[in-house]
Predict the structure.
Amino acid sequence: MSTYLLRVSIVFSLSIIAFNVKAAPIFELIIQQHLFYPAELVIPADTKVKLVIKNQDDTAEEFESYELNREKVIPGQSSGVIFIGPLQTGIYPFFGEFFPKTAQGKIIVK
Amino acid sequence: MLANAVIIVLREVLEASMIMSLFLAYSQRINLSRFWLLLAIMLGILCAWFYAINISTISSWFDGVGQEVINAGIQLLIFFILLAFIAQALVGANTSKQKQTLIMLMIVAIVLASIREGCEIILYITGFSSVPELLHPVLIGSAVGAGIGISVGVCIYYLLVNMSFKSGVRVGYVMILLIAAAMMSQVIQQLIQADWVISQYPLWDTSNLINERSITGQLLYALIGYEATPTPIQVTAYISAIVIIVCVSFFQLSRHSK
């Protein structure tokens, strides 16, 4: 019985995984000397967006935003992908958790 | 830099520290040797190290969302191990076979919980190895953060072992239940970030009430998986996790009492 329940819960967990076929527009963020370029990124409202973050520093950085509910480690000299949105118009701050003094930025949804 | 290191390491240590204290209190209550914890911590650090040195490769899997997929997999596994742990613990730990199963489950849960958080700490600290003037404050800050995180775990441990047996079991049960539910919510969050689960507008926004940045928000995140702006699928996963565990618990208890 308990294995049955286990199976049911696994199937449930997998069934909510949905593959989205529509390609999301791509936006790029670059980390250099613990700064984000651009520091303000404008993206369209009500649209899912693929954010490609390229870390050109040797040190790792963690992209983090409480407003966007996103966090991801981007290893040094490599890049990472984060999907954000659809979002309502507004300003969504983000920062680099490892170097928060300098690594600050905003996503502006218009 | 020092204060930042404290916060980063504290956040990462808190989650693993809470699970450890719960398991340790349980071991104490059923008179298990606590040697398994040492093994679990060492294995956990080893796996975290392995994850950290391969992070670039892992990140590039699945078109750049490998980290999210692996993290979601790890957290889904932790959920099922906590479920199995509860199911076994409710039946009891009378035979040596039952005890072995419980120790196994506790070790695997702690190793898995250490991988992601440990990897972030390792990447954070090793990043400063090329900047010697910053390495010193970062190491001190990290030690302080880890110390605070472990202290919270120690407090929870003593709270649990000093309660009456009945209330200790109840509080421990609710804590594991909420940690497991938080795991499922995080699984969904990771998969949304990877675009494997459809993204939605948040169901509610309580960031004005309790901000996730605040200390209360951070503590609630560690305790119950608090998020200010969860999506409907995340909330559904959270509630389903609780329902599944409670159902399994009732089933185990009714079977056992026969």
